[in-house]
Every structure is written in structure tokens, then in C-alpha cells.
Amino acid sequence: MSEADANDGDPEIDRINLRIARSFLDVVDETWRERGFNSRSEFIRFALRDTVNHPEGAGVWKDLAISEAQFDEGDGISSDEIRAQYGTDSE
């Protein structure tokens, strides 16, 4: 592959590979469409830029990734279980 193929002809653009769970990719795809982004890449660039520019919010992304991994491993807790555990009836 030539350098032009790797960066679509723009020397300021680098291509990266990202591996994430299929279930999380489904959420990402649904989210970028709902929020009006033109593509998955555009949305991911926005999310990365936002995280770099506002690092105080990065913990939310980490927590989400941990929660996704726990859910995928079967360690998730249903909202009914949470309501029972904390004695709340509100949904």
C-alpha cells in the first residue's frame, strides 16, 4: 500500500485501526446516526477531540467501556435488580 493510499492523499491524516466489541460498535453506529454525524469516523474524531479538550469528562468514557465489558461477560445488573437492591419504585 502506498503512502497516498494509507492517508487518502492528505499528509496530515493518519489512519488507525481500532478494535472494540461488536455490541459497543452497534451502540456507536446508532449514536452517530441519531446525532446527525455524516459517518462513524466523523463521530469518533469528534469524541476523541472532545475527550482530549475536556479531560475531566474522560472518566465517563472509561466507565462506559468497563460497563460494556462487564455486560458482555454477563456481569450486568438489570434495572429491576437495582430497584430491588435500593428499594426504589421509580423508573
Spans where pLDDT lies below 50 across 5 or more residues: 1-5
Strand portion, in percent?
A: under 5%
Question: How many separate domains?
Answer: 1
Order of helices and strands: HHHHH
DSSP helix fraction: 55-70%
Query: What is the mean predicted local confidence, pLDDT?
Result: 81
Shape verdict: elongated
Which sheet architecture does the biggest sheet show?
Answer: none
N- to C-terminal distance: 53 Å
Number of helices: 5
Broad structural category: mainly alpha
The count of strands amounts to 0
Rg calculated over all Cα atoms = 18 Å
Organism: Haloarcula hispanica N601
Protein name: CopG family transcriptional regulator
GO biological process, one term: regulation of DNA-templated transcription
InterPro entries: Arc_rbn_hlx_hlx, Ribbon_hlx_hlx
If you had to describe this structure to a student in words, what would you say it looks like?
With 91 residues, the protein is mainly α. 60% of the residues lie in helices and 0% in strands. The longest helix is centred in the last third of the chain and has 15 residues, at 58-72. It is elongated. The termini are far apart. This is CopG family transcriptional regulator. InterPro entries: Arc_rbn_hlx_hlx, Ribbon_hlx_hlx.
